[in-house]
Design brief:
This is NIPS1 protein. It contains five helices and four strands. The protein is α+β, with helices and mostly antiparallel strands. It has a domain at 34-131: Alpha-Beta Plaits. The two termini are 39 Å apart.
């Protein structure tokens, strides 16, 4: 009878929590938009940073302005603190993962872009990409006239 009383008494204070029905990232991401972001980190050889910046300023805006590619170059910059001689590029894919795949497939056929990648590869020490979903509580990032200072943060959801 004590166990029955304990569980009855405990039931007054313990609330039943429904199990999540979706991944945590999907629960926090925006529902009304289907934008997917790709952030690229390129560690550039120190002696090549100026040439790298000139090359990317020539090629990347062309992809941004070409209506055939479902992507927008939201921003690109070099880091001052943390990783030195690093370039960061932020792309938005309107249409989510299908738009990303469409863009990637088209880039594989773009000779100018393939030549750009080949030349760029000689300037890099390493590179890393991340795909990002928008948080529902954040505003959409918009391109800004520079110079600007940004702080990059990483959050680990538990």
């Amino acid at each position: 009878s004590r166990d029955a009383e304990g569980s009855w008494f405990r039931s007054l204070f313990v609330h039943k929590v429904d199990p999540r029905k979706d991944a945590h990232s999907n629960l926090l991401s925006k529902k009304e938009t289907s934008n997917l972001y790709k952030i690229q980190f390129h560690n550039v050889k120190p002696e090549c940073l100026d040439a790298y910046n000139r090359l990317t300023e020539e090629v990347l805006p062309k992809l941004h302005s070409d209506a055939d590619y479902p992507c927008d170059l939201v921003g690109n910059w070099n880091t001052w603190y943390g990783e030195q001689d690093q370039a960061v590029h932020l792309w938005r894919f309107s249409g989510g993962y299908p738009a990303l795949m469409d863009c990637m497939n088209k880039l594989k056929q773009n000779k100018e872009y393939l030549d750009f990648r080949k030349e760029r590869s000689r300037m890099l020490l390493s590179r890393r990409n991340q795909l990002l979903l928008e948080f529902s509580f954040w505003n959409e990032p918009l391109p800004r006239q520079g110079p600007n200072i940004y702080e990059l943060r990483t959050y680990k959801l538990k």
